[in-house]
Design brief:
This protein is mostly helical. It has 8 helices and 2 strands, in the order H-E-E-H-H-H-H-H-H-H.
C-alpha cells in the first residue's frame, strides 16, 4: 500500500520539501527502513504477548486467592480511580459479546458473570492493566509486581506503557 510505505520516505526527503528526496536516495533505503520496522514490530509483539499471558494469569490468581471473590472485578469496593466505572462497563460489554467457549460454558450454566479466571482470558489488555492500576490495595498490586521483581509503582507505570506499546504494534 502506497500510504503505508510513504511514511518511511520522510527521513529521506529534503527539509521543507516533503516531495523532494535527498540527492542519491534509493528506493532500497526506504524499503530497508520499512523491513526493519516490521521486524522490530514482530519482536516487540512477541515480547508483549508473553508478558500479557503471564500478567493475565497472575492477576487472576492473586485476586482469586487474596480476595476469595471470584467476581472481584465487578465489585467497586476493590477498586478506586476515575476510570473504574468505564472499565467495568467495557468488561461487561466484552463478556456479553464474547463467543469464546469458556464464556459460553458459563452462560449455559445460567451464570450472568463468569469468575475472574475466565474473565482474565477475554478482557482487553487495556482493561486488565487498568484494573491492576485501579486496585485499592497496594498489597495486591505488589503481589502481582513481585512476579516481575518490581515495586508496585514502577510496575503500574510499566504495564500502562506496555499497553500503549502493545496496542500501537498490534493495530498498525
Amino acid at each position: 500500500n502506497y500510504y503505508r510505505l510513504s511514511a518511511y520516505r520522510l527521513p529521506y526527503t529534503l527539509p521543507n520539501a516533503p516531495d523532494k528526496f535527498v540527492p542519491g536516495t534509493q528506493f532500497g533505503q526506504i524499503w530497508k527502513l520499512y523491513v526493519f520496522d516490521q521486524d522490530l514490530r514482530r519482536l516487540v509483539w512477541s515480547a508483549c504477548e508473553r508478558l500479557e499471558l503471564s500478567l493475565r494469569a497472575r492477576w487472576a490468581y492473586v485476586l482469586a486467592h487474596s480476595l476469595n471473590d471470584p467476581l472481584a472485578y465487578q465489585n467497586q469496593v476493590h477498586f478506586n480511580g476515575p476510570g473504574f466505572t468505564e472499565t467495568k462497563r467495557r468488561i461487561e460489554e466484552d463478556i456479553k459479546q464474547s463467543h469464546e467457549p469458556l464464556i459460553e460454558h458459563h452462560r449455559q450454566k445460567g451464570l450472568l458473570w463468569p469468575p475472574i479466571w475466565v474473565v482474565s482470558e477475554v478482557i482487553t489488555f487495556g482493561s486488565l492493566t487498568r484494573l491492576i492500576r485501579y486496585h485499592r490495595e497496594q498489597r495486591i498490586r505488589q503481589q502481582i509486581a513481585d512476579t516481575y521483581a518490581l515495586d508496585e509503582r514502577s510496575f503500574c507505570s510499566i504495564i500502562h506503557h506496555l499497553a500503549l506499546i502493545r496496542n500501537k504494534v498490534a493495530h498498525h
